[in-house]
Amino acid sequence: MNNFEEKLRRLEELSEAIKGSDITLEEALKDFEEGIKLAKGMEKELDAIEGKIQILMNAPAEDSESAEEEKSGEEKKKRASKTKKPKDESDVPVLDLFSPSTEVNGTRIG
């Protein structure tokens, strides 16, 4: 059995056979074992398919529209970085993490 639909059809046949009243215990056990093997194989196939779907759903779109948006976004970033260069050191932002006004007494050595 090569494709998923054939395996599913066979699993349904086995299930119906097991439910029948004219089946021996040995035949039911044999059908049950075959059904379990089929079900486990199908579960692996479904997991693989689900993985592929997740990859496709999470992959970035590669259509021309998004490519154009990406290019224009990169160009804007380049222009912004060129125009936002500080003229001198006084224009550079300073992080004043340890100013005396915000310190709690005894927390700083030095």
Primary descriptors:
110 residues, mainly alpha, 3 helices, 0% strand, rod-shaped
**Mean pLDDT over the residues:** 77
Tally the beta strands: 0
Rg, Cα atoms, Å: 33 Å
Strand content: under 5%
Shape: rod-shaped
* Order of SSEs: HHH
What is the secondary structure topology, with strand pairs?
Layout (H helix, E strand, L loop, with lengths): L3 H16 L5 H34 L5 H20 L27
Helix pairs in contact: 1-2
Task: Describe the overall structure.
- The chain is mainly α.
- Helices cover 64% and strands 0% of the residues.
- It has helices at residues 4-19, 25-58, 64-83.
- The chain starts with a helix and ends in a 27-residue tail after the last helix.
- The relative contact order is 0.06.
- The mean pLDDT is 77.
Short structural description:
Helices cover 64% and strands 0% of the residues. With 110 residues, it is mainly alpha-helical.
